[in-house]
Amino acid sequence: MRPFPWKIGYRLTQKVSVIERGLKKPEWREEYTCHALLLLNSMPSESTWSREIVEYVGTESFFKDLRQRQWIPRWELQEAHEGHLASRRTSFGGLSELEFSSDLHNSAAWIVGEDDWEPVPYDRLYWPTILPSLPDGPIVVGQAWQGSLEFSYEVLDARIDPETLLLLERLMEQDASEAVETSGATEEIPTVEEEEDLDGVCEFGLDYTARVVDMAVADPVIEISLLEEEALFEGDYGLIAMYPAGTWKVVLSTMDAAPVLMEGWCHLKVCSASQEGAPAVESLDLLDCRTEFKIQREPLGFDASRVYGAA
Predict the structure, then answer these.
(1) Total structural domains in the chain?
(2) How many percent of the chain have pLDDT more than 90?
(3) Cys-Cys with 243: which of 7, 165, 204, 269 at CB 3.0–4.6 Å?
(4) What is the spatial distance between Cα 170 and Cα 286, in angstroms, rounded to a whole number?
(5) What is the DSSP letter of 124?
């Protein structure tokens, strides 16, 4: 199975439950159902499979509106998306655009960072084409293989809150000392506290199994199961442990190696841990996140400025 250049639209529906706290920050809780549009731009070369996914969070009626209007400008989708993100308190779903790459077998996907390759964020593990890897040769029922992926989670103490982050993104091209008009008032650009100079990004290794359980006409139905094994990371905020769980099915297109349908659940828990040889300390839950999701292709097209409904 080989990826092909293609632009694909997806409809994402997910139920999210997140409990998050920092080592020195209070606990935040959120539960909500989210509807979103995902736009996948697949750009394979002779040896590399590059992809870009853009998310627009909206309402359940978006797809009906798109059919009635025939097309919607992307700036309008972006404004609505930012409005939804501004109402959230936890980090889940905070990244709306993801550029990542892998080899043609998708052995390990990494996002394109400012200076180097970076692991995929924890809340994007189940986005289209992140998992699974693609085996050599034909895919048949009963076939199974193992894969791995690096992913990241940023400790809450080192993170700017979502409202401030959105404001900073809007002011990126302005001078840091310039004031901006917000709701008729003058507001100075927020400054990050000195403690946020600490690197709070934790990187974990994730192992999973993939098994072909059925065929949907000519497309294989692959069940992905995360291996429930502890992963550790030692950084500026001490020793951090991660515990993954989750299972979802992917109907994978034999035409372009991208999903037709994805459905299942994912649960990640991140805790503080004791250093080996050091006195035991009480574990502190930093993240407890569960999501149930369904991602399916939609008959739409898009370019740099518009999203088009099916003719």
Answers:
(1) 1
(2) 58
(3) 269
(4) 29
(5) G
